[in-house]
């Protein structure tokens, strides 16, 4: 019988990662260049191996074969089960390593069916084994890797994040709020352990990765995620995406425009949470000023020079104005695409900073009206908007009043239908 180990190649000198080729790569594709920043796109499955099934044996049959029982076998079988038991023992003896139970514990297609998993090469990925395995492959190849525990550290944390993202995507599709684990107290830790109990068995055990390499992108050929960009680069890119979104919206290409605004918002939100901007905001509050000002931090001269260069370009007023505009444009796209639920939180964020924002009140009112559940909230937004327009000397024949009147007429129609439905319902109750 062929030794399975003979088909395995060592990925690491210590044999901590072993590889079995399942399918050759596409020979027409060039070999990947594994430079820092290359983006590997692949599908993977993860397996673990449980304890093997126990072999059958004479013991446990209910028949006592001990010397104390006084039971002797003589020269022949003593009972009907002896032949079967002996046969099982022989089979077990011939198999030195009983087959362990293979169990799938992860699948990238389940985490995100729409696209392959992406891994940036050379940035100390949390699961060391995955990067080391992928770098042995060619495009189109499918291979299996057996990895010892020391190379799999970080996989449980990765699985937790992917599981939470998957649950949040499902909640978002149902219009439910997304969630994440908060707090550091014992109660929060207990809740997290209960919700992730299925991952507990993956700590400090060997894992098997089955990987199919889809393609490898060079560092300058893909869109970087906000977390892998410098703050200043995100700040510079956001207005470019906003302008691209504006052109696409005017052309009526709303899904494409939405992608641009979504990207711009992700960049701006990441910038607003950066330590540089938060320092600037703290300094602004401390000084009681409304204009841009960088924080005066005690640090070495090199850090101060770097921060001052960023601070000189980043303007808090500009950042806020960009964020507000992108939220409103995102909401406009969502209304065009028939997704009013997503409009409300974006417009609400705008109104927190600018309670009299005309576009935010109008679009949120439209969203409430389209949903149809909270017509009183739509009425409230439209009434407030009318008061602002009248106080602001907007022309009665202007586009603001014209659009508002259309929505108010539609609202009145829905309110009449709602009142009639309630009247019929209550009249039936008292019949």
From TrEMBL:
The family database entries (PANTHER family) matched by this protein are listed as: ARYL HYDROCARBON RECEPTOR INTERACTING PROTEIN RELATED, TPR_REGION DOMAIN-CONTAINING PROTEIN
Keywords in alphabetical order = Repeat, TPR repeat
Where are the bilayer-spanning segments? none
* Name this protein carries in UniProt: Uncharacterized protein
Positions of region (Disordered): 1-36, 50-114, 282-310
Among InterPro entries, the record links this protein to: AIP/AIPL1/TTC9, PPIase_dom_sf, TPR-like_helical_dom_sf
Q: Which organism is it from?
A: Spizellomyces punctatus (strain DAOM BR117)
Biased composition range(s): Basic and acidic residues:
1-12, 105-114
Q: Which GO terms describe its molecular function?
A: peptidyl-prolyl cis-trans isomerase activity
